[in-house]
Design brief:
alpha+beta; Alpha-Beta Plaits; 37% helix; two-stranded antiparallel ribbon; Arc Repressor Mutant, subunit A; 3 domains; single chain; 355 residues
Length: 355
């Protein structure tokens, strides 16, 4: 039987970001037992969403600063924390609790093995999906955007990248997760961008690399051509941009289980078909990640708007240009929150240290 500390740890992690679901099978406890020692679990309970030094935490635990620092650095290597690395000589390390997602799960990129991947998969499938994924927002692929559309900056991947000074790129953890389970995928793997504070962890831990804006924009075009779905962390100033494979991505797989993903996912666009131009080639049916497109009775494709998430993958590959991307009516537009729940703003982390 699992130690009580893992149940306390589960409840603590469940407070952060999008939570950490309790299941009937208790698979979430098995995940924690694999990722944390009991000593690490105890220490995690002393962390908060705010950055603290080892000295701050040592005062709460009645341990020496050196002892706490050594443990926190080990936990950081294992993906349990969000660290803030020293920016100048003599400055201390800071540590905050990493949520399950985005955080602990994604940080297992190079530690993923078959056992862990299967545990993640069991937890993913443990319960029915009853709500949309609140942390991510689907945006249209660049190739599908008509020049006449007035695209808001928060729906324009290139516009967001051009505002970022620190951009890290890393391999997709969902791809690593599925590959460890024995699934195959020939899509590009280095497709996920982390900005600012979040990029530091990936680069410093050897999980990613810094890229220029020019390199990031070129990678974005590569992802467009590969048919990956761009998804921002859901906030006005996103902290991450994932380019997602329909077969690997946990978010897209969860959305696909919903009966009406197009009505629930934060998206401002939908696809529309021109019946006169459609030749029933079925290219769009194969491309749609949500099975929103079917062949109608008159050999004309039909789009189920309750399932369409406005990614534009059908539009960008239609040989007859029979499909186009349209903006939803203004009253249905989704304005992302200034501060999302999925990833805490980088500025908030930094301002917390200053205060």
């Amino acid at each position: 039987m699992a130690s009580d500390i893992y149940y306390k740890l589960r409840d603590q992690i469940d407070q952060y970001s999008t939570g950490f679901a309790t299941t009937e099978s208790g698979v979430e406890i098995k995940i924690l037992e694999k990722l944390f020692t009991e000593e690490e679990a105890e220490m995690y309970l002393n962390l908060t969403e705010d950055l603290q030094t080892a000295e701050d935490i040592a005062k709460k635990t009645n341990q020496s600063s050196a002892e706490v620092e050594a443990l926190l650095k080990r936990m950081t290597e294992k993906g349990h924390t969000f660290p803030r690395f020293p920016k100048k000589e003599g400055e201390p390390f800071y540590y905050a609790a990493a949520p399950y997602v985005h955080g602990i799960l994604e940080h297992q990129l190079k530690r993923m093995d078959k056992e862990l991947a299967e545990l993640f998969e069991e937890h993913f499938k443990a319960g029915p999906i009853t709500r949309p994924i609140p942390g991510l927002r689907t945006i249209p692929v660049e190739a599908a955007i008509d020049e006449t559309l007035n695209i808001a900056p928060y729906d324009d991947a290139k516009a967001v990248i051009r505002k970022k000074e620190r951009i890290a790129i890393t391999n997709c953890v969902c791809n690593a997760w599925q590959q460890a389970r024995g699934e195959t995928c020939d899509q590009p793997k280095e497709v996920c961008f982390l900005f600012d504070f979040y990029g530091d962890y990936y680069v410093d831990r050897g999980l990613g690399r810094w890229v220029t804006q020019k390199e990031a924009l070129a990678k974005l075009e590569e992802c467009d051509k590969a048919g990956l779905v761009p998804q921002f962390s859901n906030s006005e100033n996103p902290e991450a941009l994932c380019n997602c494979c329909r077969n690997c991505c946990g978010s897209l797989r969860a959305l696909k289980q919903l009966p009406q993903p197009g009505l629930l996912i934060p998206t401002n666009y939908f696809a529309q078909i021109n019946d006169e131009l459609c030749t029933a080639c079925e290219t769009c049916i194969d491309r749609c990640p949500m099975d929103a497109i079917t062949m109608g009775q008159k050999d004309i494709t039909e789009i189920n708007l309750e399932r369409c998430i406005g990614c534009g993958l059908c539009v960008s590959t239609c040989p007859e240009q029979a499909l186009s991307l349209k903006q939803k009516p203004e009253q249905q537009h989704f304005m992302p929150p200034e501060k999302g729940v999925f990833m805490r703003p980088s500025k908030e982390f930094e301002d917390g240290i200053k205060s």
